[in-house]
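Friendly challenge for the regulars: who can give me the structure tokens for this chain first? No prize, just bragging rights.
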Amino acid sequence: MQKYAVVLAAGKGTRMKSKLYKVLHPVAGEAMVQHVIDSVKNAGVETVVTVVGHGAEKVKETIGHASQFVHQEEQLGTAHAVKTAKDILGNKKGTTIVVCGDTPLISDETIHALLTFHESENTVATVLSAKVNDPFGYGRIIRGNDGQVSGIVEQKDATAEQAEVNEISSGIFAFDNQKLFETLEKVNNDNAQGEYYLPDVIRILKEEDEKVSAYITDDVDGIMGVNDRVQLAKAEQKMKERINLQHMINGVTIVDPATTYIGKHVVIGEDTVIEPGTSINGKTIIGKNVTIGMNSDIKNSTIKDDATIKQSVITDSVVGEFSTVGPFAQLRPGSELGKETKIGNFVETKKAVLKDGAKVSHLSYIGDAEVGARTNIGCGSITVNYDGVNKFRTIIGDDAFIGCNSNLVAPVEVGDGAFIAAGSTITDDVPDESLALGRARQTTKEGYYKTK
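First reply, four minutes later:
Bragging rights claimed.
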């Protein structure tokens, strides 16, 4: 059976008190609505339609090709929002799930379970529900004497007896697609807010003697909506706990999960150790037996087996096997380290390739450069890559030695086995196995201090 999804993402979210539209607020480094769409697609939904309104262009830009889009010009309620998808989904056969774009913790396992239950029960509508200790503020699932769902009652409309019910509606539904769009035409806005509400579809279906069910999920956190900054912080915490738990189950040591932030797309190998205060985000891949030291920040990078990162920032870069980085180093985008390389304290690299065994131990800037195997670059050395208008490249061969405080003014090439004397400024190419000096001769004036 074909599966579809309507993601409701048109609201501005005034309680967030932000210029950023609600569904675009990040949780674990990714927009809330993106988490929802990822879960929906991972659950096997083929076609996703996202209802946009406020900030439509920004939402489309964030989601990209993962969804089709419809625009809700006026926010007239959830039923009205779903109805805007009629031109895309109205005539299709199958099951449609309706989910809010501000529920970032909804998992693909929960969605899959909802869809499976809905189809196995041969029901026209299924509400995703949960049993909670404090149901205040939620719509209650009302069941008849036969245990079947008879309706959903909102908090403000509940009788004293109904208010005691602890089974709540998540606001997430599965429908027979054609029945959904047929029934949406019958929903009216005869209520205090003058809006068209999706739960009214459930009421109408029951009045028409259609079968309506509720699937009770154990994942209460997963159905949590985010409407303000307090709930956003709670969602961040829950997502962090979920991600960290999965990595630990998979064989990763996280010394202090409470202070470790890992994005949901990060892959980490067995026996890797993550120390406190670390943030790992984006499409980062970390190998086995890696040590990530305290307060490191890694994004969209690959750290290969047995590498060690100490209190450093790494972005869009590659660190080879058995290599060490830091402490207090920064690998900017385009840095690529081979095996057994060393980037020491207060070293910065950018668009730099360091081949196997190369070393830049401390206080250097290596930008737009290629550094050969086993080459050693001394303290305070700089590849001078920028003339104020253009960037130029420095190429250093294998087994070279670059003395401390050397400036290599690009474009320049230093050959294999070449030796650059400390304190030199090199502006011309240096042949293989040559010594180059580029500094003024020392002048010493004895007794100068006394004459002053």
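Residues 229-249 form the longest helix (21 residues). The chain has two domains: 3-223, 229-436. Your move, everyone else.
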